[in-house]
Amino acid sequence: MAETLALLLLAHVLADFVLQPGRMAQAKASGHPGWMLAHVGIVGAVTAVLLGVQTAEAAWVVAGLTLAHLVIDAAKVGLSARLSGIAGFVADQVAHLVTLLLVAGLWPQMWANGLWAAHAPLWLPAAVALMAGAVLATRAGGFALGLLMRPWGEVGLDGLPGGGRIIGMLERGIIFLLILAGEPGGIGFLIAAKSVLRFGAVKEESRLSEYVIIGTLASFGWAMLMAIGTVMLLSALPPLGIPDLSP
Questions:
Q1: Which residues, in sequence order, are CB contacts of 41 under 8 Å at separation 6+?
Q2: How far apart are CA 84 and CA 90, in angstroms?
């Protein structure tokens, strides 16, 4: 089951956070049916390719999962007036995760029966899980943090265009690697370093300092949560599926 779940999760994060341009996301949010169908088409295609679907049953399962993705996205648009921002984002992703868990639980052999499984190295499922976790920690975290901080969007630090976004991705990536490497204590040094670097810019402005604190804690918390989830998925993989990352 864990191998199938890892592949399904990677397909989901690629379709939602890597292969979905901003124009498509904005059009989907406005309820444009063409862009919505294009997005779910990408979801289905990526899922089928990664799993190596070669049986009618697997094709029907992927079709059902794609339909479920469409229903969830359409529901998000329909409920946008009552469920928006970070709450809508989290609810949407939790709903998708539940469908992935359900499919992996009911059809755990989808990966084993697929086209690639017989030729894939034993470490591939672990690599897939790591890739999915890294995308969730860095890129998906950027979307989540942007929605969380949107109510205070007028507050910010003067700096390089897009600098804050890049810093956030880097810090979440470092935290992800530290936890996967079994060195969570290094996160404390990262917090200290960021505090020292930001101190001079925010010490005179309480609103700005609160904005930075909220964003930093949320970013760190998101990365830690994604890293812990990745470790749990890795631990569920068969022997030789999890690499030894200890120093």
A1: 66
A2: 10
- Residues 6 or more apart whose Cβ sits within 8 Å of residue 68: 99
- Please give the backbone phi and psi of residue 60, each rounded to the nearest 5 degrees, phi first: -65, -35
Q: How far apart are CA 140 and CA 146, in angstroms?
A: 10
**Cβ–Cβ < 8 Å for 7, 113:** no
What amino acid is encoded at 87 in this protein? Answer: A
Per-residue pLDDT reduced to its tens digit, 136-168:
999 999 889 888 888 876 555 556 666 778 888
Residue 213 half-sphere exposure toward CB, CA atoms < 13 A: 9
The pLDDT score that the predictor gives to residue 155 is: 57
Rounded Cα gap, residues 234 and 53, in angstroms: 23
| Residue 1 to residue 215: CA distance in whole angstroms | 36
